[in-house]
Fold this sequence. Notes:
It contains seven helices and ten strands. By secondary structure, it is of the alpha+beta class. The protein folds into two domains: about 1-70, no CATH class; about 140-295, Reverse transcriptase/Diguanylate cyclase domain (Alpha-Beta Plaits, 2-Layer Sandwich). A six-stranded mixed sheet has the order 6-7-5-8-9-10, sandwiched between helices. A four-stranded antiparallel sheet has the order 1-4-3-2. A hairpin with a 2-residue loop joins strand 2 (about 45) and strand 3 (about 50-60). The radius of gyration is 51 Å and the shape is rod-shaped. GO terms for molecular function: diguanylate cyclase activity. This is diguanylate cyclase. InterPro entries: Diguanylate_Cyclase (IPR050469), GGDEF_dom (IPR000160), Nucleotide_cyclase (IPR029787), Rev_trsase/Diguanyl_cyclase (IPR043128). It comes from Rhodopseudomonas palustris.
Amino acid sequence: MLSNRPNTLDRSLWPVRTRVTLAEQFGASGGPPMLASEITTAAWTTFDGRRGYVLRGAIPQSDWSMLIVSPLAGMFASRFLGIVITLQLALSTLFHFLGKQHGVRESLQMQRRADLQVLADNLEVKATTDPLTGLFNRAKFDLVLGHELIRAERYGTQLALIVYDIDHFKEVNDVHGHQAGDRVLVQLSEIVSCEIRKTDLLARWGGEEFVVVLPATDGMTACLVADKLGRAIAQATFDLVGTITCSFGVSDFVVGDSVETLLARTDNALYRAKINGRNRVEFAPASSNLAPTLELR
């Protein structure tokens, strides 16, 4: 306790029977008493040679004030602990947000990679798909046939190729219009797709001409496949047109063949099918001048 009045320094803090001074009650201060005016609240003050932080508050209806003195070491320890706790909380929050930001960044990067992959896949599909029929286009056919030729050459496996087109397709367009002709191409693609194996590749070569790559298939078997396709097409009914027929050229791989030689041989077989009356299958073996034909019934 500290008196606000210098002349009351010898006043007892509480009523006692024997009047005693503050020094008698609490011991000597080691120096002259400090006056109230010498002490400022929320400031550093030296008491008995020891520095402390003072908080002062007046006692209501009294001439006395209450002082709370915090030692310097305790203040520093308390403040240091507060700094440490505050720093720990700040670092924890920072690490949390950094980790969260890192997770968000990784998630965004993964999503971006997925989007790019989807875009690449879509671009590849567009680059290898015929927009009208949904079949593979000539670019995809060239790529697959090249790979199959390499496989057949390396492992000695069989490979056959079918080329076919629609008989008198120009008349279909002239009589029924190009939209009807496009519809015929779409329906034809659907019919042939259902008749071939999953391992075979059907592609639109261009216009009304189509090609089928048949891995692990010899020439005679390919002729039977072409015959089956021709019969399925002839038995179908096409919108606005009625019935149509197709001519087929067939050839198989021989050692030393390239994409160009195999295609040329198969295309020549198709040409013979057309000049021999259409609606038929022509086979062009590489080892013989004979050209077996199979007329579709």
